[in-house]
Fold Peptidoglycan-binding protein.
Amino acid sequence: MQKTFYQKELLIKATQQRKGANNNKKDIEKIQSWLNLFAMQNPSSGTATGIDGDFGPATEKAVLNFQKANNLAQTGIVDQKVFDILVSPLKKAFTSPISGNNLRELILSAAQNHLKNHPFELVINSQSNTGPWVRSYMDGHEGTDWFWCMGFVQAIIDQAASVQGKNFKTLMPLTYSCDTVGTTGLQKKILTRFQTARTNPALIKPGDIFLIQKTTNDWFHTGIVAKVQGDIIETFEGNTNSDGSHNGNAVMNRIRNFKQSKIDFFSIESLVV
């Protein structure tokens, strides 16, 4: 794989605890982030707490509650073994086996695997687009200005392509920009414009990348095509929400009407062959 930053998110440098001699802010923020992500899926767990890099009594109680919810020894201390359980959704998303008879099926398998592990951004220091999932998709970058929909798309394609020993960067450059991928598609003549796609939906295939136009050569949101049926596409997309925002907070499986929106399609066929 080319995008391997997620590996750094799976580790802490030292055991962290209240008044610990080896405490450090980054590790504590990681722990607090995962306690909050756990709370989103388990709202009665009592693990939601502030993300401030300070292992105080609130964080200690949240850790105790997490340990109780997972039938662990209730110590209030986070060593690497406890952290492994905290970060298990991220590890499963990036390392669990994916299956498929071809690259397109592998891409959809990888996207589905990420989806079921609930990637979600956090707000840290008043900055949206932050947290371990965002950093993993964005190679360590995070913050309000770091829209992560393309980071998600490339992480999925990279993961699938690597199973076949392929490098996704032969198809497009490593980027976080929809415009860069759209421009690359135009240069390589593998971008189907929305007018053509509307009249010939057979050109759209699962595993291809959709790009929503702002203007002719300006795209503002992206995702992966899962299915094409009639006037609609089913998608996997990051940095979105139930309204289909390009600056939402989650990975979602969405439905879009491509005949009522200006959606261009970037073909991955040359990587498939």
About this structure: Residues 173 and 179 are 12 Å apart (CA to CA). DSSP finds eleven helices and eight strands in the chain.
